[in-house]
Design brief:
- Helix 2 packs parallel to helix 5 and helix 4 packs antiparallel against helix 5.
- It is globular, with a radius of gyration of 16 Å.
- A hairpin with a 5-residue loop joins strand 6 and strand 7.
- The relative contact order is 0.14.
- The protein is about 45% helix and about 15% strand.
- The protein is built from 7 helices and 7 strands.
- The protein has a domain of about 130 residues: Beta Polymerase, domain 2.
- By secondary structure, the protein is of the alpha+beta class.
């Protein structure tokens, strides 16, 4: 069905999944941080709502040592744990597609063996609603480490609203600073 409200529906579905995940982990006292495209969307939206791009799913960074507790808390909230094609995720019970999932990555570990650097574990920011979200410096680090086309676009979005500060840039390793320069050269 074609609908002009598709964007709004998708945003609300993403936010509902994020809130469900937050309620499960927060209720169990398990630390996490929202990362990836949704975290980028939230940070950019706070600066300039017109420049925020939507993402497909919810990504969260957690500690691997918390995984058994995360699985239990998620199960109680109606999310089922799956490990598919090397990806750890929480999917709504009965959901036909993994697109509705919360994809988990682990702090202080590389998402993929070939990545330059591990997922940072800085103290998360907190939204007005209490959602824990990776700080911009961690997002920049992760996006430059992944360095796929969508990550480069997210870097452009963060940069376009002034979120990539000289302090953040100075905190990057030399290979990640080179990647930032490459993205900026294509803008």
């Amino acid at each position: 069905m074609l609908t002009a409200a598709a964007y709004d529906i998708h945003v609300e579905q993403l936010l509902a999944r994020m809130r469900q995940f937050h309620a499960a982990l927060d209720g169990a006292g398990i630390p996490y941080r929202i990362v990836g495209g949704l975290a980028t969307f939230i940070h950019v939206y706070a600066r300039d709502s017109g420049k925020a791009r939507l993402t497909d799913d919810v990504d969260a960074a957690v500690s691997r040592s918390d995984l058994p507790r995360i699985i239990a808390a998620a199960e109680a909230a109606g999310l089922r744990y799956r490990h598919v094609a090397g990806v750890d995720m929480l999917v709504e019970a009965g959901a036909p597609r993994a697109k509705s999932a919360v994809h988990l990555v682990f702090v202080n570990e590389k998402v993929r063996p070939g990545y330059l650097e591990p997922v940072p574990a800085s103290e998360p920011d907190r939204t007005n609603e209490g959602i824990l979200i990776a700080p911009v410096a961690d997002l920049v680090h992760m996006k430059l480490t992944s360095f796929r086309l969508k990550d480069k676009v997210h870097i452009q979005d963060l940069d376009s609203v002034g979120l990539i500060t000289p302090e953040i840039e100075a905190g990057l390793s030399e290979p990640l600073r080179a990647r930032l320069a490459e993205v900026r050269a294509t803008e």
